[in-house]
Every structure is written in C-alpha cells, then in structure tokens.
Amino acid sequence: xxxxxxxxxxxxxxxKFYEMVMNTNPVMxxxxxxxxxxxxxxxNILFGNAGTNADYTNPYAELVKGYxxxxxxxxxxxxxxxxxxxxxxxxxxARVLANTNRYSYFDVSRQYVPFFYRLDSYDKFTNxxxxxxxxxxxxxxxxxxxxxxxxxxxxxxxxxxxDYNRVFNENIR
Length: 173
What we know:
rod-shaped; three-stranded antiparallel beta sheet; 6 strands; 2 helices; mainly beta
C-alpha cells in the first residue's frame, strides 16, 4: 500500500484541492464521521484522519476550514501637455509628460483549526464504531484572523522639454 501525504501550501485554488483529493488515500479515513456514542454531543465537525497526530491531509477539512480575501490593484496614469509659446517668441514650444504606476496588494485569512478523529474500531454486526480524537488540544472552533503581506509599489516619471525652432535668415543655412 502506498500512502501519499500532501504538505499544504498557502495558496489553495481549485486545482490545488483537486490535487489533494487525487493524492489522498480514499479508504484510510472518511472525510467526516457521524458522531459515535462517545462524541454524540461534540459541538464541532468530526473530520476524519489517521495516524497518531492527524498525520494526513483531509481535503474536505482543508476546503471548509476558512477563506482568504485579497485585493490587488494596478493604476497607470499618464498625462502629456503641449504648449505653443508663440506669444513669447516665434518658434518656441514646450511640453511636459508625467506618468505614475501604482500596484497594491493585501490579503486577510480567516480560518479555524479542524478537529480530527480516527476510527479505532468497527463492529460490522451491530454497525457501530468508536472514534478517538487526534488533536483535541490543538483544534479550535473560533476563526483566527491572519493578515497577509501588504505590498505597495509606486513609480513616477516626469519629462519636460522646451524646443526653440526658428529660422532667422532664409539665405543662411
């Protein structure tokens, strides 16, 4: 029997969940257990796992344990002004070009730590089973608030030019 363990990453999109599902052993544990007699009043979802310390990835628990909200913004602005300065002297022109680029990103995660349970025994004649908690002291029902990185990149560009183009004597070149 080959068992694969997936190390969770910080970015989980649809393809990452699909990869988790495809690489998780489908018979090692159920995604969620119905409460047995011992845990019939458990206030939390009984996510399945195996090992002694919830050693395996439960894709369902990863999917429903929380969310990440993010915002990314890119602003590009440019303005160019051209002015004929004939009122000062003939042939005088000026121009100004200004540009700014701004990128910003932030994210916020809210998630809880799932409670994992292992199937200890199953009696097929009475269709009863016994579960044991794997992380009673580490699990949490409360949503944790985690701020991610905040990134702001800004650049400015300014260009100015004055052009004097005048012929004083047509005969001299």
